[in-house]
């Protein structure tokens, strides 16, 4: 196995542990909890995640870039680690004080506990990124895999005794996140000679550099969770539960993005010092973009074929057919997310923070306005459309800046892939009524059309093979 293959495998294990296994646990809670409790859990967790993103100050990509470009930057990890501890404690105290004035509201009473769970992961983040930036993905992959397996085992035990309740689920969250934190801390402490020390000037310099990125983090936090939060205030718990399930499945479908993102950021960071892209580099970018778009269109195509039948079967008819249209809208964002992640990663590596902040600010404000207008009238469908239009706006801004300042990447194949996907979808529906056969026919027709018309060529596969062999 090549060095790059090992890195992708380890990075993939991290993504699978946090996303796929986390999704299994999410599925179990959706199955055994009532829709009301499930909605409360999802709403409180969304708020906790949003608070965590606010506390990050946009330091994460800056830290990764510094460590990747200079392996001696141990002070960066220490400063980021101490920052996360201090601000997590301050936020927890604030939440507890707020909770004293909201006695009797269970969704707010569980919020500090869910925040504690997220805070452990947040505090461990600098340690994880110090390893990832050096392309040492395996240690955290093992820890994350163990933590999420432990979470599923506990859920299985509770389900056997019919004890999956809202409070017990929260306990599992806290226990497994603490295990994850203490495991990675001990590993880094022993094997990486990690030590705590604080450089005041360096810290404030880091904050100053990260400020433009922090603005984008704030808007990104709102963009990803404001729909959940508004639904919790103005809509029913049933609508919130349905949307939470559909949105989580949409997040899980972006698993390939989480696998390749750490690798892309590291590679782009190391190439950031070059003033221009040579022809070979441009060719690599175009090939990579084309292959990503091929997969990005195929994923939602397959998911929408199986959604209603499969999800109804595994959730006892709770979240499948009732969410068909909502998931269709959200899944349409998968392709857009692939393109955004590709351009966002390169912009971060090249320190183009301003354009990221502007794009996120515009799309978030647009999303907020649409949510305020559409959710009261259309509930979860309004939230889904708001998110889709916001992502389209963000992708458009990124693309025009990317092609103007970095590389004029061709998106012709993207529109061709979309047209082939639509054709494959309706053809498979016409050929058979069996879901599995529909899925097979759909993938076959889509792939054949792409190959026969030259959108996916042998040179793409050879390039991909050579990439794995030489890195």
List the helices and strands and how they pair.
Layout (H helix, E strand, L loop, with lengths): L2 H30 L2 H21 L3 H11 L4 H27 L5 H4 L1 H23 L4 H23 L5 H26 L8 H35 L2 H16 L2 H17 L7 H36 L9 H8 L1 H17 L3 H53 L6 H20 L3 H18 L5 H13 L1
Helix pairs in contact: 1-7, 1-10, 1-11, 2-6, 2-9, 2-10, 3-4, 3-6, 3-11, 4-6, 6-8, 7-8, 9-15, 10-13, 10-15, 11-14, 12-13, 12-14, 12-16, 12-17, 13-15, 14-15, 16-17
In short:
The protein is an all-alpha fold and 471 residues long.
Task: Report what the structure shows.
The longest helix is centred in the last third of the chain and has 53 residues, at 353-405. The protein is an all-alpha fold and 471 residues long. The termini are close together. It is 85% helix and 0% strand. Residues 1-10 and 269-273 have low confidence and may be disordered. It has helices at 3-32, 35-55, 59-69, 74-100, 106-109, 111-133, 138-160, 166-191, 200-234, 237-252, 255-271, 279-314, 324-331, 333-349, 353-405, 412-431, 435-452, 458-470. The chain has two domains: 1-198, no CATH class; 210-471, no CATH class. The chain has 18 helices and no strands.
Distance between the termini: 11 Å
Task: Tell me the domain tally.
Answer: 2
Which term fits the overall shape?
Answer: globular
The assigned structural class equals mainly alpha
Which percent bin holds the helix content? Answer: over 70%
Query: How would you sum up the major sheet?
Result: none
Question: In what range is the share of β-strand residues?
Answer: under 5%
Total number of β-strand segments? 0
**What is the averaged pLDDT score?**
79
Order of helices and strands: HHHHHHHHHHHHHHHHHH
Structural Rg: 22 Å
Number of helices: 18
Low-confidence stretches: 1-10, 269-273
């Amino acid at each position: 196995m090549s060095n790059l293959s090992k890195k992708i495998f380890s990075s993939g294990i991290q993504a699978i542990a946090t996303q796929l296994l986390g999704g299994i646990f999410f599925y179990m809670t959706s199955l055994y909890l009532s829709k009301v409790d499930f909605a409360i859990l999802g709403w409180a967790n969304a708020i906790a995640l949003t608070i965590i993103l606010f506390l990050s100050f946009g330091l994460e990509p800056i830290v990764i870039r510094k460590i990747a470009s200079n392996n001696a930057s141990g002070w960066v990890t220490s400063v980021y680690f101490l920052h996360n501890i201090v601000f997590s404690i301050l936020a927890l105290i604030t939440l507890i004080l707020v909770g004293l004035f909201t006695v009797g509201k269970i969704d707010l009473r569980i919020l500090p506990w869910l925040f504690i769970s997220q805070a452990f992961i947040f505090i461990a983040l600098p340690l994880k990124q110090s390893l990832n930036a050096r392309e040492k993905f395996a240690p955290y992959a093992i820890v994350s895999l163990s933590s999420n397996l432990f979470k599923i085992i506990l859920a299985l035990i509770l389900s056997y005794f019919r004890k999956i309740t809202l409070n017990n689920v929260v306990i599992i969250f806290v226990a497994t996140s603490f295990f994850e934190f203490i495991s990675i801390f001990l590993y880094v402490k022993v094997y990486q000679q990690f030590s705590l020390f604080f450089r005041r000037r360096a810290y404030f310099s880091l904050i100053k550099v990260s400020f433009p990125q922090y603005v984008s983090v704030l808007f990104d936090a709102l963009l990803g969770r404001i729909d959940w939060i508004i639904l919790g205030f103005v809509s029913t718990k049933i609508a919130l539960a349905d949307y939470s399930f559909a949105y989580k499945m949409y997040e899980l479908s972006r698993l390939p993005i989480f696998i390749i993102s750490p690798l892309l950021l590291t590679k782009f960071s190391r190439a950031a010092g070059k003033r221009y892209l040579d022809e070979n580099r441009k060719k690599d970018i175009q090939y990579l973009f084309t292959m990503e778009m091929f997969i990005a269109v195929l994923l939602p195509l397959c998911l929408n074929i199986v959604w209603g039948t499969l999800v109804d079967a595994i959730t006892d008819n709770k979240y499948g057919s009732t969410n068909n249209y909502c998931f269709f809208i959200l899944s349409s964002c998968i392709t857009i997310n692939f393109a955004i992640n590709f351009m966002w990663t390169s912009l971060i590596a090249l320190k183009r923070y301003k354009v990221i902040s502007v794009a996120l600010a515009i799309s978030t404000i647009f999303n907020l306005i649409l949510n305020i207008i559409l959710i009261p009238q259309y509930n979860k469908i309004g939230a889904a459309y708001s998110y889709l239009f916001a992502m389209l706006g963000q992708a458009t801004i990124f693309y025009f800046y990317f092609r103007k300042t970095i590389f004029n990447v061709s998106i012709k194949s993207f529109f061709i892939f979309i047209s082939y996907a639509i054709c494959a979808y309706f053809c498979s529906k016409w050929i058979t009524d069996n879901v599995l056969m529909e899925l097979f026919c759909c993938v076959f027709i889509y792939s054949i059309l792409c190959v026969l018309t030259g959108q996916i060529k042998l040179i793409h596969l050879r390039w991909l093979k050579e990439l794995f062999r030489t890195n």
